[in-house]
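Example 3.2
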Amino acid sequence: MGHFTNILKYAKPYKKYALGHIIANVFYALFGTLSFIALKPMLDVIFDKKTLAPKSFPEFKGLNNIKDYAEEALIYYMDDFTGGDKSKALVFVIALIISMFLLKNIAGYLANYFMVFLRNGVIRDIRNRVYKKTVELPLSFFSEQRKGDIIARVTGDVNDLQYSFLPVLELIVREPLTIIFTIIAMLIISPQLTLFVFIFIPIMSFIISRIGKSLKRKSTRVQREQGVFLSTLEETLTGLRIIKGFNAEETFNDKFQESTNRSYHFRNKLLNRQNLASPTSEILGILMISGILWYGGNLILSGDQKSVLDGSMFLVYLGLSYQILTPAKAITRGIYNIKKGGAAAERIQEIIDAPNPIKDKPDAIEKTGFDSTIEFKNISFKYDKEYVLKNFSLTIQKGKTVALVGQSGSGKSTIANLITRFYHVNEGEILIDGININDLTTSSLRNKLGIVTQDAILFNDTIVNNLKLGKQDATDEDVIEALKIANAWEFVKDLSEGIETNIGDAGSKLSGGQKQRLSIARAVLKSPPIMILDEATSALDTESERVVQVALENMMKNRTSIVIAHRLSTIQNADNIVVLNKGEIIEQGKHDELIAKNGAYKKLVDMQSLD
């Protein structure tokens, strides 16, 4: 029940809908019981039961006589209305029955109407909460999670809650009250029969539950919108490094919530139309039955039938006995659904409760500029058991370009992950202008960093929106200038819609070189003082590499740059080349100096057949 309580917390903002749902359900249960009791006077007319109408309205003498009081009051009103005419009496009681069923179904529809807003509101808020937490969590969390599993939790598991836990909210009021009102009526009619009937209720409830079928209607708009927020989620998980690096969490959070809000409104309209189906069919059904009863009743108005439990009361009792089966079955199903939904709630709660070690300290510093140095001071770090960096120390002066080279697994990309605070160091510290980056706000730290990765991570949107990821207030002129610096304007200006062109899923409409130049333009537009290039040209062909390399050189002018290089031809002009092996620095210096040493760097150069 702990998970059920956690889910119910999300219902607090929708108290007014919950209250409306409860009130409507009280009337639903009441009119549901009265609709069967109202059959009694109609059956009395059909069976021609001789009943003497009281001359005055009866006096209420306590709960012990409530059955006689109700009967006499109804007979009094019916006699006053019909003047003793049996045909008119039949019309009167049929109208009474129709009114009870109509009121019951109106109350039922209103209960479902309020529940739609309550249920969909809770689902929307849970989805938004899980998505927001997903964006906030560090990359280390996702290294142990599968992307599909995260998506399944936000979609499938949340849907499981919708069809397991949340329907229990309806059971809390409607079904217990229906059972209580029905049992009270049954006990008033016949206590002995009530005890006897209870033996068969579990058996009949089981049989009906086996036979019952649920109907599912589909909506094109709902499905389409579901695809939108799933796409946004998938792109978020794929491009989380860029989103975090450009402080674009809120941008994507707003985009996701816009989609879930549209889905929320579409679902409300869809389900409210679906909720009309049940009361409409029942009202039409009772109107048809009423017509048959009126016609058939006029044909058989004769005879005098008497018994200890007269025929009309017995038929009413049978109707009440049948009515109690539905809520009893629903409660049984609800208990089962709570257990079934527990697994889904637990999986969702795992994400919501996941600890986030990359959190700002209460007194974190909001640093506005970069003045002098970046210092890696005796850094050691491991992803799992083995250290990928060991006692790594390096100082980078402002305005200088430092290249990190080495074999795969030597720790080059790890340095980029640490300076951006995607991961925390295990030992040592990273300082910017003498301040530990853990003492800075994550936002102010990442505002100083521009990132260009090996895989050009772009989103299914326009060129201008992709570039403005890290600078939402940039003008079109700023965007075009950044494209020119990145050597991307030459192809963007020829596109049919220019910077407003949609580039497709992950930039699928562009070539590898074009995508990488847009990534560079995005970093240029952000205009940070520190650039991090993580093997930005390693995935390109030779021709694209030359164009991108020129763009990189334009971007790095007057900036501090950390270049993680696979192709050594791209870093020959670096101010300092650091050679790594198994997480340790084995050589460093300028290109010509390292070649002259004839060491590890020279071997790497020879392996790539550089001139």
